[in-house]
Amino acid sequence: MPTYDATTDPALKAFFDIPAESHFPIQNLPYGVFRPSAKHEPRIGVAIGDFVLDLKVLQTLGFFDGPVLRNQDVFEERWLNEFMDLGKAARTEARKVISDLLSGKDDRLKNDPDLQKRVLIPMKDVVTELPVQIGDYTDFYSSREHATNVGTMFRGKDNALQPNWLHLPVGYHGRSSSVVISGTPLHRPMGQTKADDAAAPVFGPSRLVDFELEMGFFVSGGNRLGQRLPMAEAEDNIFGLALVNDWSARDIQKWEYVPLGPFLAKNFGTTISPWIITMEALEPFRTAGPVQSEPEVLDYLKPARPDQTYDIRLEVGIQGENMDAPHTVCVSNFRYLYWSMAQQLVHHAVTGCNMRTGDLLASGTISGPTEDSYGSMLELSWRGSKPLKFPNGEERKFLQDGDTVVMTGWAQGDGYRVGFGACEGRLLPAVQ
Ligand code: MN
């Protein structure tokens, strides 16, 4: 049975109308950074229905006066990092203040139309910005279905999973400078590729640009250099999650990845959704992940509780230049991931590598068991052998210039959705 608290109670309602299919009901309260309009400086806010709640103004007016947040001016910052660094206690305290103001339990906002005008900004008017100053970005490979599909394509069914895969969450150190906010277009990358039958590589635009449906989490707290993080403390060091599109150039990747793994094939851009859904908002949607009994994982990776993942429906749509709307190509779920976020974080830190507030750890492509749940074009078109058919008659093996990839996701409650909004980006032609 789901466990609820005063801020996740399904019966809770905002004092103004929020449609049932909104991603941002009062049970969600995700953090982001926005500009009220293009001419304003970026500031911290919370998405609520069709509005963004301006936390900077609320802080200036003294609304955050609890024991942890009093005398902190974390909501007057450009980035969420300082708030994130205060940890779970600050998050819990802020969440209660915001929830009470929006429900009307604390009636100071409900009864003050002038204040409402100042702090509830219509979402259609705002510009969202990167919410976190991202330190290090690491990308994992945590979906067994994805690793099996890719392994089958490149090494055959019998050797699909490498010998290490079921023993540790495989990952690589990525690039944070090119992490961009949803809506930022990206150019098709240039690079070296080599056809199987060619004697030498050539330089030019990648021909096999792909998306990867992933989710990422942001570290809050972390560990000191030389110290490890135990599984029992891992979740307390996670601030929340966002959708991630880890754009990939498959032809560049194929030629460059031996022996050190992905490099330029992944660093030309990584798109994240603007609102970070906190661990507190996801608590009612906890569920068990895949069984890890064959083999048993080593003790340092043993889950602290059986339900260390979440039931979050994920979708990917592609909209070409000649299409009126995105066409859904994939429906997957966060709970398919074999390795949990806690295991990714603990494994990352097991050498004593210091994880820091603002680090982004992404899951790897999230594929499910069925062909319509594969989280990349590589798998959906099975390496280009089964082109995807779109309603307007067009076909795709990989992405074309002008294609917009739209990812979305939500946890379904009883009569409400705790959603992630959209993570979208358009692929522009290469800069030659
Ligand atoms: Mn990836």
Tell me which CATH architecture of the largest domain applies here.
Alpha-Beta Complex
**Radius of gyration over all CA atoms, rounded:** 22 Å
Tell me the CATH superfamily of the largest domain.
Fumarylacetoacetase-like, C-terminal domain
The poorly predicted ranges are none
Q: Describe the global form.
A: globular
Helical content band: 10-25%
Query: According to CATH, what is the topology of the largest domain?
Result: Fumarylacetoacetate hydrolase, domain 2
Strand proportion: 25-35%
| Total separate domains | 2
* Quaternary organization: single chain
Main sheet makeup: 8 strands, mixed
CATH class identity of the largest domain: Alpha Beta
Total strands: the figure is 26
Mean pLDDT: 97
Q: State the secondary-structure class.
A: alpha+beta
Small-molecule components bound: manganese (II) ion
Number of helices: 10
CA(first)-CA(last) distance: 56 Å
Provide a descriptive summary of the structure in words.
17% of the residues lie in helices and 26% in strands. The chain is of the alpha+beta class and 432 residues long. The protein has 2 domains: 99 residues, Roll (SH3 type barrels), CATH 2.30.30; 292 residues, Fumarylacetoacetase-like, C-terminal domain (Fumarylacetoacetate hydrolase, domain 2). Strands 6, 7, 8, 13, 14, 16, 17 and 22 form an 8-stranded mixed β-sheet that branches. Strands 4-3-2-1-5 form a 5-stranded antiparallel β-sheet. The radius of gyration is 22 Å and the shape is globular. The site of manganese (II) ion has 6 residues, from loops.
